[in-house]
Amino acid sequence: MLARRIALPRPTLERQPRSLFQRLQAFMALYRDAHKLENMPDHLLSDIGKTPEEVRREAKRLIWDSPAHWRR
Fold first, then answer.
1. pLDDT tens across 18-39, in order?
2. Which entry of 2, 3, 14, 52 is 20 to 30 Å from 37 by CA?
3. What 3-state class would DSSP assign to 36?
């Protein structure tokens, strides 16, 4: 007997902002969040499971290089 494949729902990501203004707002928010995280004290970073090196590396990434699920 052949196994029947079940179609599972694909995870949906938030849709990308459509207008240029909305995209600019999303990029600015991502930039602000990355730099707030970069300036966070080391003891708080350890509370969220991040090392200072990981945070510095992520903060240096270009805005458009971020994963889609980070964008608002």
1. 788 888 888 888 888 888 888 9
2. 14
3. helix
Cα 71 from Cα 31, distance rounded (Å):
10
- Token pair, residue 58, equals 């992520």
Cα separation values, 35 from 8, 23, 52, Å: 38, 19, 12
Please give the helix or strand (H or E) that residue 21 lies within, else none: helix 20-38
Structure tokens at 10: 């694909």
Which strand (E) or helix (H) includes residue 55?
A: helix 52-59
Answer whether 0.70 is exceeded by the pTM.
Answer: no
6, two tokens: 């079940």
Number of H helices, E strands in the chain: 3, 0
Residues in the chain: 72
